[in-house]
């Protein structure tokens, strides 16, 4: 479109949109980024990844100082916590990071538009009554929590993850509906701070999609920490009482679960409310997703979509990678997003991290596979740190020797998984990892050892 206000307008400033806007500016585009929130960073920075990890850190520090140090010969007495200070720290971390993005926008001369964007026609949006045209658009409007029809969020007694990240006080009891990563992470935060937490999950396992062995081990660990689970259970009814919420559930052991607050963490759905996609002739699926081709193009070739609003895992790093790839495509470069090497992490204690195929997926693909496992209890560094609950499992292709998947449970799994990401991305073999010299003593040696075990020569196996 000649004489457009901008070459590119990015709608949404989450990890998909803000990263796309910065990359576009780096590549010389005249770019604007619009968000309806007063702060940049989207779900991830404001009400997702970052505040949840800040609360996980504070609650973990309290838990470890209270219970785990004695075994290392350290006596900590009268350990307590200051909940308002924990919340203030979380808010401060969020503020620093969102302000950081605002500085990056300034440095890159990105025009920031504050308000809700709505398409007027395929080439024009309206924000706060003002119209802006662009040659190309990227929609990165993310997702929102799914409510239960009979338990709408009030963020006081019926919480979404957003409400659970900003409670005014630690509740005595909490029911979490949904044992996905958001559910078990927030269950962990409040359990560590003294809440009696019950998790209700429709499926027979927690954290769906995770390698079965690791999911089982995670559940056992969380149960040992005091979280009660009802698996294979459906919530059929919810009654709001004066001091809490009473849920009717379908479960052999129990028919009712009462708690002061209920966190509904049953998933998230794509968010396009108010965008007026019809005016732009952009299609959506029945589930509300924006379908895109292999180059992130929607049904309108000059309008792209990335992140939670399109198909695929709802993860911040996936959104960012798509943002970079979409913009580089616009600039005529040839980027790729390798969906096989997008890692997934659950920040519980123990942490769980995985990338690539699970054993079940690799077997179902018809390949002959090799698997190898190395337990942290045989790892020298884990002995020193006391992080003995954990293992590394690798899945490889017997015919080519290539790594197909890596699955970690245990301390620092979130950091160690990057070795698997690079290995998968670069098509490394189990032998490459088994023969790469890993520093000693480190937990990462367990990755090397698991690969050695898969190939039949584990030194400590
Ligand atoms: C509690 C919680 C914990 C999480 N933890 C992790 C984690 O540890 N790791 C991880 O990878 N992922 C995590 N996620 C998921 C992650 O936050 C999302 O996958 C990620 O934010 C998606 O990025 P996005 O850019 O697609 O969308 P979003 O981050 O949702 O950003 C979309 C933005 O678009 C704006 N917007 C929407 N409509 C309009 C409009 N019409 N006009 C203007 N602006 C609009 C919104 O205000 C929002 O700022 C977590 C999510 C939650 C809720």
Bound molecules: flavin-adenine dinucleotide
> How far is it from the N-terminal to the C-terminal residue, by CA?
64 Å
* Rg: 23 Å
The name of the CATH topology of the largest domain is: FAD/NAD(P)-binding domain
Shape: globular
**Overall pLDDT:** 97
Number of helical stretches of at least 4 residues: 14
Can you tell me the CATH class of the largest domain?
Alpha Beta
Largest sheet, in brief, is: 7 strands, mixed
Instruction: Please report the total strand number as a whole number.
Output: 22
**In terms of structural class, how would the helical and strand content be classed?**
alpha/beta
Helix content: 25-40%
Low-confidence stretches: none
* Residue share in β-strands: 15-25%
Number of domains: 3
CATH homologous superfamily label of the largest domain: FAD/NAD(P)-binding domain
Q: From the structure provided, what is the oligomeric state, counting identical versus distinct chains?
A: single chain
CATH architecture of the largest domain: 3-Layer(bba) Sandwich
């Amino acid at each position: 479109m000649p004489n457009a206000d901008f070459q590119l307008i990015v709608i949404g400033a989450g990890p998909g949109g803000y990263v796309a806007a910065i990359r576009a500016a780096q590549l010389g585009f005249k770019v604007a980024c619009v968000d309806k929130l007063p702060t940049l960073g989207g779900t991830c920075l404001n009400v997702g990844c970052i505040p949840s990890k800040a609360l996980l850190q504070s609650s973990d520090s309290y838990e470890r100082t209270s219970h785990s140090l004695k075994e290392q010969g350290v006596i900590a007495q009268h350990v307590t916590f200051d909940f308002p200070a924990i919340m203030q720290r979380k808010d401060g971390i969020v503020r620093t990071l969102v302000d950081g993005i605002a500085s990056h926008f300034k440095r890159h001369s990105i025009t920031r538009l504050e308000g809700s964007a709505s398409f007027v026609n395929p080439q024009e949006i309206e924000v706060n009554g003002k119209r802006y045209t662009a040659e190309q658009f990227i929609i990165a409007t993310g997702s929102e929590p799914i409510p239960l029809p009979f338990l709408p969020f009030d963020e006081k007694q019926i919480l979404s993850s957003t409400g659970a990240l900003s409670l005014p006080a630690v509740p005595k009891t909490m029911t979490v509906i949904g044992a996905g990563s958001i559910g078990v992470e927030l269950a962990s935060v409040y359990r560590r701070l003294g809440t009696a937490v019950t998790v209700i999950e429709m499926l027979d396992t927690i954290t769906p999609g995770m390698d079965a062995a690791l999911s089982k081990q995670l559940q056992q660990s969380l149960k040992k920490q005091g979280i009660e689970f009802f698996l294979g259970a459906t919530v059929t009814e919810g009654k709001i009482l004066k001091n809490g919420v009473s849920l009717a559930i379908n479960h052999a052991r129990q028919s009712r679960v009462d708690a002061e607050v209920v966190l509904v963490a049953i998933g998230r759905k794509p968010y396009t409310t108010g965008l007026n996609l019809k005016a732009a002739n952009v299609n959506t699926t029945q589930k509300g997703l924006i379908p895109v081709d292999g180059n992130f193009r929607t049904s309108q070739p000059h309008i792209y979509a990335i992140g939670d609003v399109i198909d695929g895992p709802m993860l911040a790093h996936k959104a960012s990678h798509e943002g970079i790839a979409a913009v580089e495509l616009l600039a005529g470069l040839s980027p790729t997003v390798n969906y096989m090497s997008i890692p997934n992490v659950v920040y519980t204690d123990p942490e769980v991290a995985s990338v690539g195929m699970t054993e079940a997926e690799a077997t179902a693909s018809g390949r002959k596979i090799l698997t190898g496992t190395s337990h942290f209890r045989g790892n020298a560094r884990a002995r020193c740190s006391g992080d003995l609950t954990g293992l590394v499992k690798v899945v490889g292709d017997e015919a080519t020797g290539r790594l197909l998947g890596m699955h970690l449970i245990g301390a620092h799994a979130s950091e160690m998984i990057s070795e698997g990401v690079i290995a998968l991305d670069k098509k490394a073999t189990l032998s490459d990892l088994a023969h790469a010299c890993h520093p000693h003593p480190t937990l990462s040696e367990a990755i090397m050892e698991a690969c050695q075990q898969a190939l039949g020569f584990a030194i400590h196996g």
